[in-house]
């Protein structure tokens, strides 16, 4: 395992910045262990809903966790509005950093994360495969 720490700047899209970092570093399996910061807004898909609901900001990013795979991120976030109300759900694209995002990532160096359709759930679910190292 290899830990990584990222600080994202104002104006970055949280999902895009994480995917850009994954590609730039050549990561094949990463856990987003922790994340805090602030957002202008947060598109969250709540449990058992098809579409995301955008929570208007300014928001505090209270927590962020999930996985980064070769087939895209799967992240859950909790955000708090200016009145302290907390919302949580599946994070979608469009969460723009307001002042900062500080992220702790853990790369697993001996496996590859993929997301493949699972007929039991109807969703693309995490599949863990051994990483083939060059001989």
Q: What can you tell me about this protein's structure?
A:
- This protein is mostly beta strands and 135 residues long.
- It has one domain: 60s Ribosomal Protein L30, Chain: A (2-Layer Sandwich).
- 9% of the residues lie in helices and 61% in strands.
- A hairpin with a 4-residue loop joins strand 7 (111-118) and strand 8 (123-130).
- The radius of gyration is 15 Å and the shape is globular.
Index terms:
135 residues; 9% helix; two-stranded antiparallel sheet; single chain; 1 helix; 61% strand; 6-stranded antiparallel sheet; 60s Ribosomal Protein L30, Chain: A
Blueprint (SSEs and pairs):
Blueprint: E1 2-8, H1 14-25, E2 30-45, E3 53-69, E4 72-80, E5 86-91, E6 97-107, E7 111-118, E8 123-130
Antiparallel strand pairs: 1-6, 2-3, 2-5, 2-6, 3-4, 4-5, 7-8
> What's the total helix number?
1
CATH H-level superfamily title: Hypothetical protein, similar to alpha- acetolactate decarboxylase, domain 2
CATH architecture: 2-Layer Sandwich
- Quick check: average pLDDT? 96
Largest sheet: 6 strands, antiparallel
- Uncertain regions: pLDDT < 50 for 5+ in a row? none
* Computed Rg: 15 Å
Amino- and carboxy-terminal Cα gap:
21 Å
Q: What characteristic shape results from the CA principal axes?
A: globular
Structural class: mainly beta
């Amino acid at each position: 395992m290899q830990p990584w720490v990222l600080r994202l700047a104002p104006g970055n899209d949280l999902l895009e910045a994480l995917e850009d970092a994954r590609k730039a570093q050549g990561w094949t399996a990463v856990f987003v262990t922790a994340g805090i910061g602030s957002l202008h807004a947060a598109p969250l898909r709540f449990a058992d809903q098809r579409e995301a609901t955008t929570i208007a900001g300014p928001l505090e990013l209270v927590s962020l966790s999930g996985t980064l795979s070769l087939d895209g991120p799967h992240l859950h976030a909790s955000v708090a509005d200016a009145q302290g109300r907390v919302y949580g759900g599946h994070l979608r694209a469009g969460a723009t950093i307001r002042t900062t995002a500080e992220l702790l990532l853990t790369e697993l160096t001996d496996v590859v994360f993929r997301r493949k359709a699972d007929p039991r759930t109807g969703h693309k679910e995490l599949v863990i495969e051994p990483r083939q190292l060059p001989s």
